Amino acid sequence: MVAQNGKDLLIKLDMDNAGSFETIAGLRATRISFNAETVDVTSLESQGGWRELLGGAGVKSAAISGSGVFKDAATDARARQIFFDGEVPGFQVIVPDFGIIEGPFMVTALEYAGSHNGEASYEISMASAGALTFTAL
Length: 137
Fold this sequence. Notes:
Elements lengths: L9 E5 L6 E3 L3 E10 L23 E10 L3 H13 L4 E6 L3 E15 L7 E8 L4 E4 L1
Antiparallel strand pairs: 1-2, 1-5, 3-4, 4-7, 5-6, 6-7, 6-8
InterPro entries: GTA_major-tail, Phgtail_TP901_1
Pfam families: Phage_tail_2
Protein name: Tail protein
């Protein structure tokens, strides 16, 4: 993977729960992280006292976050709706020259900020709520 523009990492939201994905407008910074819990199976018989982990046994999760300015009433309204209604819609994260990560996410935080001489901004955080798929680009 060669150097990429950060603006090309996109977070898309399923607008109608029917697979109609739109980029969440106005985001200036985006991030996705993957995590996997470990299951420690170390015992007194572990060779040399080294820790042993059970492969494939831990819980996997992903988190998406972004921050930016308001640009699009439709995606802003949809993000607010899914937060307040507790929905778990589909999201896509497009990572340039890597692939598309897709699956259900829950909006876990939605923050708004602004100062009297600047633009209104927001931050959004999501946590995976089911199995994710990966499609290579």
